[in-house]
Design goal:
- The chain is built from 4 helices and 10 strands.
- Strands 1, 2, 3, 4, 5 and 10 form a 6-stranded antiparallel β-sheet that branches. A two-stranded antiparallel ribbon has the order 6-7.
- It has one domain (2-160): Alpha-Beta Plaits, CATH 3.30.70.560.
- The chain is α+β, with helices and mostly antiparallel strands and 164 residues long.
- A hairpin with a 4-residue loop joins β8 (135-136) and β9.
- The protein has helices spanning 14-25, 63-76, 121-129, 143-149; strands spanning 2-9, 30-34, 37-40, 50-58, 94-100, 105-106, 111-112, 135-136, 141-142, 156-160.
- It is globular, with a radius of gyration of 15 Å.
- The model has no long low-confidence stretch (mean pLDDT 93).
């Protein structure tokens, strides 16, 4: 199965966390593509900027199993589960499933497509930059169309073409 994922970090060493996450993900997923590395303003709360990448991965795992695998990677890399009113906090690593080839998936732990993906430049731009201007299954629009209409005034800068 094909998945599009987003990986971010706003705790130093940010680039190391992204690289380590990709290394661990590659133990169970084939990494087909990785976007350039972007730095972006924290979204939903005021804090240190994030480094973000997106990746297209292939695995036999169903969505819930892949989600649980990502949660184990986050814990291994030091992410603490916080329960703030805003829902957002600093983190060494954040791994989200954004889209998958099955279109829609929802259970008590995960919703695909990611319910905020269409509102976040730091997700849309890297996926488009990989040459994956896919159609968002909820809105039936290309990601580039959604990006034109987005109400996200946060800044985002491409830092590196390749992470490795």
């Amino acid at each position: 199965m094909i998945y599009f994922i987003s990986i971010g970090s706003n705790e130093e060493p940010r680039l190391w966390f992204l690289k380590k996450a990709i290394e661990l993900i590659s133990e169970i997923c084939y990494i087909e593509k990785i976007s350039p590395v972007y730095e972006s303003e924290s979204w939903g709360f005021a804090s240190y900027p994030f480094l973000n990448i997106c990746a297209k991965v292939r695995t036999d795992l169903p969505p819930k199993s892949l989600f649980m695998f990502f949660k184990r990677i986050e814990a291994l890399l030091g992410r603490k589960q916080t329960f703030l009113l805003s829902g957002f906090s600093d983190r060494p690593i954040d791994i989200d499933i954004i889209f998958w080839e099955g279109g829609f998936y929802e259970d008590e732990t995960i919703t695909i497509p990611h319910p905020l993906a269409h509102k976040r430049k730091f997700v849309l731009i890297p996926i488009i930059e990989m040459g994956e201007d896919i159609i968002h299954p909820t809105f039936s629009k290309r990601l580039s169309e959604i990006l034109q209409e987005i109400d996200d005034d946060s800044w985002i800068i491409k830092l590196m073409e390749k992470i490795f």
